[in-house]
Specification:
- This protein has 294 residues and is of the alpha+beta class.
- Helix content is 46%, strand content 16%.
- It contains eight helices and seven strands.
- The protein has a seven-stranded antiparallel sheet with strand order 4-3-2-1-7-6-5.
- The C terminus is likely disordered.
């Protein structure tokens, strides 16, 4: 039943495409309306989807009219709780299936379908400027040395991925005429680096806490402080760090919260596995997504 719900949207899309591209199919469906009281195929496909909600409404109405001292009252309460539980499980199954599909599409966009794992799903993604450390492991300390490139960052449940567009965003409007976001022909991405996240070694530093060099002029210092306030640095504890610059402080805070939340969930899962004596234990961290592209 969960499989039917997960595939419902695809089934409806398929019927719609066939009606548009196959005249014999469309004619057949139209003919059947004479024997189905005017109902189309989609009307029948949706009925199983509506069944659980209808059962819930029926039980709620029945419980409303069943006195508490009636012998059937406990059974009605139990049936309603059970149907609520089933509805929750079905919604979760649908959400998980949709998330897996989005994850697969993101990995396909990155030409990294080999990284698809049962436990891995997309958390968030978006445009940021990404700066890789200078030789020696340090980052720029002023605007002149800053060398961050416009990048698309993907946060998965255990990997942070950095990619750049084959057509740089700075040329989208100039060459393709797009005013906002990557146009279809510019959506090809080139993966650059990926970082394995874990609860023990991953650290996130808010750029707002970084000092500004006293050697800078007042104007340049203010400009650099504003830039740092929109930045954050992620390190994996293995000698790899990225500093990223968001378009605003609010967006930076959202990214920090998302990464910290993801790392926290990794820790919670490890504790749960260890407490349950799971054979997996740290398997989640031992994936094919080792940090690369140093």
């Amino acid at each position: 039943y969960a499989g039917y719900i997960n595939g419902f949207n695809d089934a409806i899309d398929c019927v719609g495409r066939l009606e548009q591209t196959s005249p014999p199919f469309a004619a057949f469906l139209e003919e059947q309306r004479d024997v189905t009281d005017g109902h189309g195929l989609a009307d029948f496909l949706i009925q199983p989807i509506q069944r659980v909600p209808r059962y819930r409404m029926l039980l709620e109405e029945l419980l409303k009219h069943t006195p508490e001292d009636h012998a059937d009252h406990p059974k009605c309460v139990g049936a309603l709780e059970e149907i609520k539980h089933i509805a929750t499980e079905l919604n979760e199954a649908k959400r998980t299936a949709e998330l897996k599909l989005i994850t697969m599409n993101r990995l396909r966009q990155l030409n990294a379908v080999d990284l698809m794992e049962p436990h891995r799903s997309i958390v968030t993604d978006g445009m940021l400027e990404c700066e890789i450390p200078l030789p020696g492991g340090s980052f720029a300390e002023n605007m002149d040395d800053k060398s961050a490139a416009a990048s698309h960052i993907f946060l998965f449940t255990d990997i942070l991925m950095h990619a750049v567009y084959f057509t740089p965003p700075s040329r989208w409007k100039q060459e393709i005429g797009s005013k906002a976001g990557p146009p279809k022909e510019a959506q090809r991405l080139m993966p650059m680096h990926r970082m394995l996240l874990d609860c023990e070694n991953t650290t996130i530093q808010d750029g707002a806490s970084l000092p500004v060099s006293k050697e800078l002029s007042k104007k340049r210092a203010a400009e650099w402080a504003e830039t740092l306030a929109r930045s954050f640095t992620v390190s994996d504890g293995r000698g790899h760090s990225w500093r990223m610059f968001a378009a605003s402080v609010e967006l930076k805070d959202q990214w920090i919260a998302a990464i910290r939340g993801t790392v926290s969930e990794l820790g919670a899962e490890i504790v749960e596995n260890l407490a349950g004596g799971s054979e997996r234990k740290l398997t989640r961290l031992k994936t094919t997504a080792d940090t690369k592209g140093e």
